[in-house]
Amino acid sequence: MSGNRQVSAAGGYRDLEDKARKVRQDVIRLLLRQGKGYVGGALSAVDILTALYFRVLHVDPERPNDPERDRFVLSKGHAAVALYATLAERGFFSLEDLLARSPGSIPSFPEMRAVPGIDMSTGIPGQGLAVAVGMALGAKRRKSGVRVFALLGDGELQDGAVWEAALAAGHLRLNNLVAIVDRNRLQHGGDTEEVVALEPIIAKWESFRWSVIPVDGHSFEELIPALENVGYAQKPTLILARTVKGKGISFMENENRWHAEVLTREDALRALEELGVNVREIPLEL
């Protein structure tokens, strides 16, 4: 199986920064084609997904169903377009094939049978971590080296199923499991701390027997070492990634109306221009 340990020729993480910029461009293209979707939470998750698929996960686009591949579950299913764009950039399929679908036919939430490279169909808040716990437990019982990663939204932590799964994972000492919380502090309805307060998040997860690593969710220097920490502690790992909703596009950052705002062509062109695209060369249909 191919690894993701390539080193940037320029040193550091410039290669990943370029990948993340391209993924953000493709998120905008997909959402415009889709005619609906969740742009803010997709953009906040891009750097996490880029770090996973280009440096951390043991996956091979040529062998997408390899039983010994690492697993990834997008529990915050509304960020599906960010996962699609990342998978396309990683080589699981051509983004143009997805864009060629009829408007509205691109799944708003991850669907295993609709898009290559998806390990689990999700959409119901709280569902993904429970599935990831089952995957990690199964790998343990098979004595497999498979690692399981799950990305959750912070608003999702208000769902009781998350805490049931977290309690089970801590009890079972699933050190092959990593949960990542996209902590952008905004959800449908407002600030998470005003809807249903989540803090103190770190203390809560530690009380459930998890190792907790807080990081800047847009810093590859912090994300990658934390993600590669899996297995060292004899317990599951939670990465609390501080992020910005709408990251990368100035008029969307920390603006909760972009949780599910439909993109107009003008919005998309403005966003793409900020992301370094020469919009004068873009065809009318993007």
UniProtKB/TrEMBL annotation:
Which species does this protein come from? Brockia lithotrophica
- What is the superkingdom listed in this entry's lineage? Bacteria
Record carries keyword ATP-binding: no
Q: Which UniProt keywords apply?
A: Thiamine pyrophosphate
Q: InterPro entries, per this entry?
A: THDP-binding, Transketolase_N
Family membership noted in the UniProt record: Belongs to the transketolase family.
Q: What is the protein name given in its UniProt record?
A: Transketolase, N-terminal section
Record flagged with keyword Cytoplasm: no
Cofactor needs: thiamine diphosphate
Q: Domain Transketolase N-terminal: where?
A: 31-278
